[in-house]
Structure formats: structure tokens, C-alpha cells
Write a structure and sequence with these properties.
2 copies of one chain form a homodimer.
Chain A (H helix, E strand, L loop, with lengths): L3 H9 L13 H8 L4 H11 L12 H17 L19 H10 L5 H21 L2 H12 L5 E4 L15 E5 L4 E5 L7 E4 L8 E10 L2 E11 L1 E3 L5 E4 L3 E5 L12 E11 L9 E2 L5 E2 L5 H10 L3 H25 L3 E4 L5 E3 L4 H32 L6 H32 L1 H5 L5 H8 L9 H23 L3 H13 L31 H23 L7 H35 L5 H21 L1 H6 L5 H18 L3 H6 L5 H4 L7 H19 L4 E2 H7 L1
Parallel strand pairs in A: 1-5, 2-5
Antiparallel strand pairs in A: 2-3, 3-10, 4-10, 5-6, 7-8, 9-10, 11-12, 13-14
């Protein structure tokens, strides 16, 4: 996919590779990046490249909504049944939860509206039935959700409660007289809100409400609730009695989705339609659940829906890749300002341009490998192969850490790419603004990024506290704990290494600049930072356990920013570890060498970003810290000849990028302009410049 | 404008002010912020609050374009003639260049499309005639540009050349036989591109082209060129012969503007329509100019159009303020997760939320005061009162420094505000996504931010070099230079203080944490950083002067990122200085105290962001550096009770914010929900929670 012009541009540059055999094996790397389910990925990528599924920027929001639903019907009609990968074989699915998410994350290249509306239908509405329902309920309700006979909404979030789902206001009160639940929205803040499919297309919803029976509130449960009539042609008719709602109207992006609000007044739901896997009510109103603790029950239910976060992580990384591929391909052709010779310089040859784009290429690779690992973990749990409580918890923590990191990364990257393409980047025909607008809310739905980071950090602090508690029961235990923390070099399940590096390397000659390229040095620096931050926060939070509520709140408040920072450091480590592990599966030496530089860029820019921390914690000497930026800059220069190859390896074709500036048009224009000037010079008809004349005088 | 609910929210918080007299005098501060032309500002803000000029989110792009033109016609018809403030009195203008830009920057609150289309018409097309034309040309061409008889495009940028205007490809070749210039677009890359008004409405354009006469290319000049027929109803008809073009199509924002491309084939322009203030051609083709140096002539022409940058700076600050006002008002009402008591916590009481929003409030204030100072400088030059070459150069440098900083700040802030408002932030009804999409390209037009930063840095390095050169001519000069650099505490015109602080404060007990709040400490830290960075880059670049082209390019490349960093540091200092100066004009003691904290937050977060630099350059001891973050956090907590007041003082009413979540609706919903639960508890009918039951057991 690298055009002749790219090659020319690269050889123009002072930094072109010495010989062809130093180049990346783009095909081989691309193959590796297909991951664990290469055939599925390939099929899903081909689907995302099919014009039938592409975002049409010219549609009105109303037309876009209809088209998106139509596209989903076409997806159902496809022979490959890619949309049903996660559903049970007994109902036509393929029982492949990991492959399903891998495919889903490719769909972002077609149209994020299509991706998210499909996600609402199959990944939320359908998944709620699958994961919260009994086998009987699955058999009864899933087929219509799968084949779109029943388009559905996932009615969890309320206007008044998003992040804090446990506090939603909707009630489902059991009435033993009729064996029904009565669904009510007691106040405006309890309206369900922001729900995809709810404004127009959904004829049913999985509604989360406080289950009340016999005067006891058993907390949040999910109910299957028809909300609209289905008309003769299969489309959604008016609301059913007791159901109301409104359209959320225009949004900053994802305008192909009909988000809306719903409310309920005395809507009667048959007892059988409480999705009853984790809690059921007997005819007389007696509640029972396989999970005794209401808290654990709630988190188990929510945890069964973790796939949303996993799939957004992969999607965000893909979106960032698309932006980077566009900006790098354009940057490799675009010229501006005269360089040392006669020609204008390719903008990718500017140090500022490399700084804007290359560390983000590295981070996209890190995010890619981390998502592959997350998919593995997800498949382990949801295929049932290794479905343990510990794995579920690890999965949830890792998903929260990566989703909150990658969605923020994607937005930042798309913006940088937009600006790096100048005015051309602002045109819809060059894709980036459209993609960014659609991705915006990925930072919020399926868990607000800040709230997710806190969740991750609390888990890390909790782990630390449990280990400490266990250890300190005896002097021997305490000693073991200390030794383990010092020596354990093995990767913790969630990637948190137990490494202390209490001794700073101040003055240590072995810690010279060159050591920064050493993987072990990077690992230690990244891992130590997580461990130390967690330890510091844990220690700072300890007094809160025995403090009065107000004082406890103050202590938590004082450490909240540090909690979020620790979670981010953890995500950095996870990604670095995943990248480093992946290096060992690259066989081509040149590719592995270049990819090692890319990994180094990721690791060292993370360290560079947090250099203050390393300095203040005595982990890096001033002398060594001073070398970091210079070393990164040298690495970026070294990567320059490989930039186009690195983005080509992601495997997106023109049918995925769909940006005129990344199509080779810019190189054609440059060639035409240069040919014009050359011809004019050769003809002798070129005007002399006044500047040149004055210099002569 | 602070509602009762805000007050309640604030008093709920642990951080409420002790007594009423500690509160900010919102009215007084608001008055102060109106600046040098309060009446004009007030009128312009009222106009921006007028629904006739508001962005209508429901329009199609085609309808939006028509409406924007219509709004401009209404603006012309207004009695206040706010749009003509900058034009000469002799043609109905008011000759008030500074007030004009102050008013222009308020228009962003109405609709950025309207603002920028008005900017194209009066601030670019009209301004080109005004500043590049002779009095005769002004008299002949300006009136129709002013009253919209001739909607115009500003045809400078080409597809192939944006930042490097000197290299545009369009040619204007003089033909003495007919006393005309022949305008040509020699290749596709030389098409004019991204021009507002060009796709549909413009009937003329100010076209920049290489002026060629008698075989000599005199560089870029501007020509007045009719491009479309004017139809009987006054609207634009088809292209005139030789002119062609196309629509830029959809954009990421500003969809109310018809951006497009233009090209020319043998279009004949009368000799009289070369805008001839800085260069003219006699009938026989002899070129003459009041400025002998082609380079200086070019930069003088471009510099006369600096107002675009000045006005975008103020507009970007205003857009950021709107986003912050929405997010802060919502955050002061929105509750999520139970706090220490029974009630859920107001989200503005979370440390993470304060960290997201408050430093940006401080930066918006800093940006506001810096823009006021920039407007002063602009008015000084363009009113003719102090129009010296030095002032022009300072104006251009300061405008470039601030525009590149504030537009980036606005985008970052609007995104943070969007996310801080959660899913609600993504709805168009809450404004932020729409505003952000429109502001996106402010980072690119009127000068790409990265290119502008380099321009600023080169100027600073040049100044340094000149001083050094002058100084080193004699030993006495050198000594004076050194002393001046060490002792000069007066503000340099462009805000760059000549302060060296070669001695680090390591171990100095006077430099304890408390000193960070001292203005002189902040000033020294900020100014020293700029001076040192400039000096370092200047020294690093010196070998380039005598190096071969390729080596010189390599040296420049190696220092390019540092150049950009130095420019940003300079902008930080400019803003801090402007903020600090403004404090002295605040009379109310409580207001001044709170605003001093706000200034401290700005200064200290800038220092915090660059802490690595301060540590590695020995400007802060580890001990002192460690106190920065904690001190900032305490300041943010201290500002909590004043947050709503601080955004209210910006003087935007509901008619400017136009966000449902900032209208008090959230507080109403919260009150309703709490009333519901209170009533239910009082009635004795509230269900008992399973959790509570299990705890009892």
C-alpha cells in the first residue's frame, strides 16, 4: 500500500533507511496484528470496508438513523453471521465471545453510529438477556433480539444517575395478586436517558429498576419490557400504555443513533420477565438469589456486561490508528517551506511533526497489544474456560483501566491528527473530524473515564491492603511480604509488578543514558511507579478507615487525584508489558528491531511525561533524566523512514481510511507543481525574482 | 445570576465561605472585565444574546449558510453599526480598531459561523482593501464591501500553500498593452482553498498572487477581483469568465460558512485594482514600492492583517469561558454518589472535578487579561497613535503567541467541560459539542498554531541575538549586557523579562513552600524559564549560521521542539503578567483576595506543568517542588465556594450559555428527587433495603 511517492519522500529525507532489508516486513507484521482470530478479523475488516456499511456524511440525522437500522438488517442477512458470534450455538450463534469483540471493534471503521447501534442491540440489549436471563428466557427472548424482529433499548442510565447505577430511581414493585411487577418512574430524574434505539426504533427494552417485593428493596435488577407496538411492517409504532419518552435530539456525534428517554407509569411486567439468573421472585413474592450479598450480586450483574468496555477499548485504538494513518500518509507527501536544497520539505521531516505523531503511533501499538491481551482474558472468562471470580475481577479491572485510557488517547490523537493536517484536516472529506465527533462520547458511555480510573485504583489499593493485612499477621509473614515485594519479577495477573526500587540510581554509572533502551530498565521504572503510587495512596488512605465520615471524606478527597494518577500509571504498565511480550512473537529481525524502537518510544515517552515523579522520588538522577528527551528525539528520527510502513501494517486500505488527502492526491499535486516550475525554468521564460536581483546588486 | 440552588450547593459543601462579606463582588468584577470599551462590549454582548443571531442547530448546512448571510445583512441594518467600527469615518465607519475587535470576539457566543463569516467579509476581505489599498481604492471599493453589496472572499491560502504564503503559485502578470494584470492558476496545488464565501456568496475576492512585470517577480501582492455576476436581486450568480471553483463541502464545524476553492485562467484585472499601498505598477510596467526590501514589504503587507489573530485570541477565550460556565453551573448542582451524610455529593465537591475545571477557570482569566492588553497594543498601532515599526513587531509577536495558546486552550477546555458534564455534555442541547466543533479550526486558520509558535520563538531568539551582538562589540558593552540581564526588572514590551536567576534556591530557607504564593517568586520562576530557554536555544542555534545548508537544517531540526516550548513559556509569562497587573485595578478587598488565589492557581499550575524543567535546571529544590501540587490543591479547595461567582463574573446570561443543564433544571430535578424520597420516608411506606436488613442480622 506504500505508493511510489512515499518512497520518494522517504528517500528525500535525510533519515532514509540505509538499505531495503532494514525495512519492516509490513505484510508479516500486519498478519501478526490480526491476533488470535485472524479469519474473523479479516472478515470483519472486509465488512467495514464494504461501501454498504460506510457512514454517509450527506444524510440528515433522520435519514442517517433509518439507514443505520437498515444496515443492521443487512448485517443480519449476511451469511457470515458476524453479528451473532457471541450468541449460543443452539440459537444460531457461534459461542465465540472473544472473536465477537474483535470483529465488533473493526466496525468503527465503517461508521461508529452503526457500531454503537449494533452494540446497543446485540452487546447490551441482547447481552442483558443472555447474561442476566435464565436459559428459558434466552430461548424465549433472544431470537427476536438477534434477528432484529425486536429492536431493543438498554434502559439502565437515568437522567439523575449515570455512574452510580445502584442509586437509580425506577422501581419495580411486585404485585402477588397478578404475579406482575409494576414499573414506575417516580420523578423526572429517574427517566431513563441517553438510550440508543429508545427515541424511535426500540419495541422493547431491558429496564433496570429497584426490585421491591414484600416491602423489601432488593436493589437493581433487569426486566424485559415491551415499550412500543410493532406495526404490521415490523417497524416500531406508538408507545404501549404507561410508557412515555422523548427524543434526546441532536448529539455531538453518532447522529445515526436514535438516543432517547423513557419513563414508566404503572407498567405491568409479568413475573417471568424479570431476568432471573441472579435473582428471582416466587409467585408469593418471596425473593431468592444464588448470591447472598446484595452488593456482590449487583456487581456480578454489572460485571456480566463488561464486554462493552472491552469492545470500546479495541474500537478506540482502531479509530486512533485510522487518524494516524491519514495524518502520516499526508505528512509523508505534503511539503511546506523550503528545505536545505531547492525543494520544499516534506512535513514529516519536521521535528515538531514527528513529535506530534510518532509517540502516538507507538501508543497505538501499545494499545493494540494490550487490547489483544484483554480479549484473551475476556474470552477465557466468557467462553467458560477459565471463569473464576479472580479472573472476572481481573478482567473488570483491566477493562476499566484500558477503556478509560484508550478512549482518551483516541480523542487526543484524532485532534492532533486533525491539526497536523491543517485546514485539510477540517474538511469532512478527510474523515478525521467526523470520526472524532463520533468517538467523543466513548470517553463517557460504558463508564465515565474518571470514574473508571478511580475504580481501578481502588481495586489496586484494595489488593495492596489485603496483601499487607495477610502479611502483617506475623513477623514472618511481614518479612515474606517485604521480600516478595522486592523480588517478585513475575507479572501479576493485572500487570502490576511487585517491584520496589528503593535505591535510587543517583550516581550509579551503570544507569547511564544507554540503559534507558534496556527493557528491564523501562519495566522497573514503570512498575516501580505503579507500586509506589499504590503504596503511597494506600498508606495515606489508612487513617480514613477509622475516621468519622466527614474526616474520611476529606482524606479520600485529598487522595482522589492521586488515585486516578495511579490507575493511569497502571494502564501504562499494562500496555508496555503487552507490547514487550508481543515483540517476542515477531520473527523478522528488521521488523523486530524497528518495533523494539517503537516500544522504546512508548516506554520512554511515558517516563518523560512523568519525569517530575521520577526525579522527586529519587528514581532517576538529574543526569539520567536529562538524557530522556534527547534519546526519545533520536528514536523518533530513527523511526522516520518507517513511519508509513508502521501505519500500513495496521492493515487499513483506502476503503477504511476514506480520506482524500491520504489517497496519494497530495503527492500528485506536488509532482504537478514541481513539474510546472521545472518546465518554466527550462523554457527560460521564468521571471527573475526581485529578491534575487537585489541580492546580486 | 447565581440561583438559590447554587448557594445551597455551596453551603452544603465543606468548603463554604465563612461569611457573606468574603464573597466576590460579581457585579464589580464583571464591570472591570468589560475592559477599555465597556459600552461597545456591552452592546456587542447584547447582540450576541439576541436570538436573531443565534446558531440554529436544526438547519441543514445549506440552510445554515443562507441564514448566516441573512444575519449579516441584519447586522448591517442595525443602527449601532457595530460591524463597521474599524472602518474610516469618512465612509460611515467609526475608526475604532480596538473596540471593533473587542466586539467581534463577543460574537462567538451567538454563532461561530456568523462570527467567522463576518470576519471574512469585514476583517479579511474588507480589511485587505482598507490596509493594502490606497485612499482612492478604499473610497471606490470599501462601501460595497461594508454594506454587503459585494460579499467577498479572501483568496490567500492555496491547496498547496497555507503556512508558507510567500510560495503561493497564483501569478498576476502585467500586460502593458492593455494595462491589465493577467491572473493565472498554473497547477492544481495553486487553487485558492478553504475560502469563506467562495463556494456560493462572494461576487469578488481579494486575491493574492505573485506580481510579475517586465520579467521580474515582485512577490506576493493583493488584487481586487470580481469573480461572480451579481444577479438582479443582489445575490451571486455564475462565475465570471476565466474564474472557476468548487465547494469545499462539509466541514467539522462552521457549517454556516460556504468555504470553497477558486482558480483563474487568464482573468484580466485592471491595473487600478492592484491594491497599491505597498506596491504599484506604472502604465509601462515599472514597479515601485515605498518599501525597498521585498522581504520586509511582504511581512508588512501580511502584518497589516494581524487583526485576525488578535480577534481569534479573544474569541477563543470567550468560547472557553462559555464551556466552563456551563460545566461549573452544572457541577454545582449535579449530585452523584453518597457523600459523608445522607445526601449525594455535588460533583464540584470532588477533588478530581475541581482539578479538571478550576485551573482552567484561572487560565481563562489569564487569557482574558492578556487579550485586553493585546487589544490595547493593537489599538495603539492601528489607531495610528503609536504606530511604530517596533510596536507593530511587538503586536505581531504577541498576537501570534496568544492566538496559538488560547485557541489550543479553548479546544482542550471545551473537551474537558464536555466530559465533565458526562452524557449530558454530548447532547447538542447543552451546547458544548457544537461550540467545540466550530472552534476546532481556530487552531489552524489565521496561522497554524505550531507555525505561529515557531514564529514567536524565532523572534525571541532574534532579539536575544541582536542584544548579544550589540553587547559584545566591546568589553564594556558585554559587561553592561550581563548586568542588564541580571537586574532589569521592568517588563519588556512583549512581556519577556530580562531576569536571570542563575543561583538555584536549593537549601535556601527563605524559599519555603509559602514563598510560592509570593508574586515575585512566581514571576521570577516564569520569567527565568523563558529567558533561559531562549538563551539555550539561541546558543544551540549559533553554529547553524556558519554551517552548510544540510547541517544547518539538522541543527534547526534538533531545536525545533525547544523553540515551540520557549514560545509557549513566553505566552504563559505574558498571561501571568497581564493577570497580575489587572489585580491592582480590583478595589474590593474580598474580590482582590480571591482573584489573587486565582492568579496563583494559574501561575502555580504553569510551574507544576513544567516542574521537570525547574528541577533539572536547579531552579527549584526537590523539597520545594514537592510542595507545589499540594499547595495548588489547597488553593482549589479554597476557590470551591467562589466557583460559580467566578464564572458568573464573565457576564454571560442564559441567552449566551444556552445549555439546558446550566439553566437550573438539574437543581430542580435533584430537589424533586430528594422531596420524593423524604416524603416516602415520612409516609412509612418506604421499602427497607435488603442490604440494611442483612447488616442488622
Amino acid at each position: 500500500m506504500t505508493t511510489t511517492s512515499d518512497r520518494t519522500a522517504q528517500h528525500d529525507s535525510a533519515t532514509s533507511p540505509g538499505s531495503a532489508d532494514e525495512r519492516i516486513d509490513v505484510g508479516g507484521l500486519s498478519e501478526l496484528l490480526l491476533g488470535r482470530w485472524p479469519e474473523h478479523r479479516r472478515a470483519a475488516r472486509a465488512r467495514a470496508g464494504d461501501p454498504r456499511f460506510h457512514k454517509d456524511e450527506t444524510l440528515t440525522p433522520a435519514e442517517h438513523r433509518e439507514r443505520t437500522l437498515e444496515q443492521m438488517r443487512e448485517m443480519v442477512a449476511e451469511e457470515d453471521k458476524l453479528s451473532w458470534l457471541a450468541f449460543p450455538e443452539r440459537m444460531g450463534g457461534l459461542d465465540q465471545p472473544g472473536a465477537n469483540l474483535a470483529c465488533f471493534s473493526e466496525l468503527v471503521a465503517a461508521d461508529p453510529s452503526l457500531q454503537i447501534k449494533a452494540g446497543v442491540q446485540w452487546g447490551l440489549f441482547g447481552a442483558a438477556i443472555l447474561h442476566l436471563g435464565t436459559p428459558e428466557q434466552q430461548d424465549r427472548l433472544l431470537p427476536a433480539a438477534m434477528d432484529l424482529t425486536v429492536p431493543g433499548a438498554f434502559a439502565m442510565t437515568e437522567t439523575g444517575h449515570g455512574s452510580d447505577v445502584a442509586s437509580i430511581g425506577t422501581t419495580a414493585t411486585y404485585d402477588p395478586a397478578t404475579e406482575e411487577f409494576v414499573l414506575d418512574t417516580p420523578f423526572r430524574g429517574a427517566w431513563k436517558d441517553y438510550l440508543g434505539n429508545a427515541a424511535q426504533h426500540a419495541t422493547a427494552a431491558t429496564v433496570f429498576a429497584q426490585l421491591i417485593t414484600n416491602g423489601v428493596d432488593h436493589g437493581v435488577h433487569c426486566f424485559y419490557v415491551p415499550i412500543r407496538e410493532t406495526l404490521a411492517d415490523g417497524s416500531a409504532g406508538p408507545f404501549l400504555p404507561g410508557v412515555g419518552g422523548e427524543d434526546d435530539g441532536l448529539k455531538g456525534g453518532l447522529r445515526g443513533i436514535d438516543n432517547g428517554r423513557l419513563h414508566f407509569s404503572g407498567v405491568r411486567v409479568p413475573r417471568a420477565d424479570l431476568l432471573a439468573r441472579y435473582g428471582s421472585v416466587a409467585p408469593d413474592g418471596t425473593y431468592s438469589s444464588p448470591i447472598d450479598s446484595p452488593g456482590r450480586r449487583f456487581f456480578t450483574m454489572l460485571g456480566s456486561l463488561v464486554q462493552g468496555r472491552v469492545s470500546l477499548d479495541g474500537s478506540a485504538v482502531n479509530a486512533a490508528k485510522i487518524g494516524l494513518a491519514i495524518a502520516v500518509k499526508y505528512g509523508a507527501e505534503r511539503r511546506q517551506f523550503a528545505g536545505p536544497g531547492v525543494d520544499e520539505m516534506v512535513i514529516l521531516d519536521y521535528a515538531t511533526h514527528r513529535r506530534r505523531l510518532f509517540p502516538r503511533i507507538a501508543e497505538a501499538y501499545a494499545g493494540h497489544f494490550a487490547n489483544e491481551r484483554l480479549l484473551d482474558l475476556f474470552d477465557d472468562v466468557f467462553s467458560g474456560e477459565h471463569d473464576t471470580p479472580e479472573n472476572r475481577e481481573d478482567l473488570e479491572t483491566t477493562a476499566a483501566a484500558l477503556k478509560s485510557t484508550s478512549t482518551a488517547f483516541a480523542l487526543d490523537t484524532l485532534q492532533e491528527c486533525r491539526e497536523a493536517c491543517g485546514g485539510a484536516g477540517f474538511l469532512t472529506e478527510n474523515r478525521i473530524t467526523s470520526l472524532r465527533a463520533d468517538l467523543d462520547v466513548y470517553a463517557t458511555f460504558e463508564g465515565d473515564n474518571t470514574v473508571l480510573a478511580q475504580l481501578v485504583a481502588k481495586r489496586l489499593v484494595g489488593d495492596y491492603g489485603r496483601e499487607l493485612k495477610g502479611a502483617t499477621k506475623s513477623p514472618a509473614g511481614m518479612a515474606r511480604f517485604v521480600v516478595e515485594r522486592a523480588a517478585d519479577a513475575a507479572l501479576h495477573r493485572t500487570g502490576l509488578r511487585r517491584v520496589t526500587q528503593a535505591l535510587a540510581d543517583v550516581g550509579d554509572p551503570r544507569r547511564a543514558a544507554g540503559h534507558l533502551r534496556d527493557a528491564e530498565t523501562q519495566r522497573e521504572l514503570l512498575a516501580d511507579r505503579v507500586a509506589t503510587m499504590v503504596e503511597e495512596v494506600a498508606m495515606a488512605l489508612r487513617p480514613a478507615q477509622k475516621a468519622a465520615p466527614a474526616e474520611a471524606a476529606r482524606i479520600l478527597d485529598e487522595n482522589q487525584v492521586a488515585l486516578v494518577e495511579a490507575a493511569r500509571a497502571h494502564a501504562d504498565l499494562l500496555r508496555w508489558e503487552a507490547f514487550t511480550d508481543a515483540l517476542s512473537s515477531i520473527e523478522d529481525p528488521a521488523t523486530r528491531r524497528v518495533m523494539t524502537w517503537v516500544r522504546d518510544v512508548f516506554g520512554l515517552t511515558v517516563i518523560e511525561r512523568n519525569l517530575t515523579w521520577y526525579l522527586l522520588h529519587g528514581r532517576l538522577s538529574d543526569q539520567r533524566a536529562r538524557t530522556v528527551t534527547g534519546y526519545v528525539d533520536r528514536l523518533l528520527l530513527r523511526l522516520r523512514p518507517h513511519a508509513v510502513d508502521l501505519v500500513d501494517a495496521w492493515g487499513f486500505g483506502q476503503e477504511h481510511l476514506r480520506a482524500k488527502i491520504a489517497s496519494g492526491a497530495e503527492a500528485e499535486r506536488q509532482d504537478e507543481a514541481r513539474a510546472y516550475y521545472a518546465t518554466r525554468r527550462a523554457s527560460g521564460a521564468a521571471p527573475v525574482s526581485e529578491k534575487a536581483l537585489k541580492k546580486k546588486r
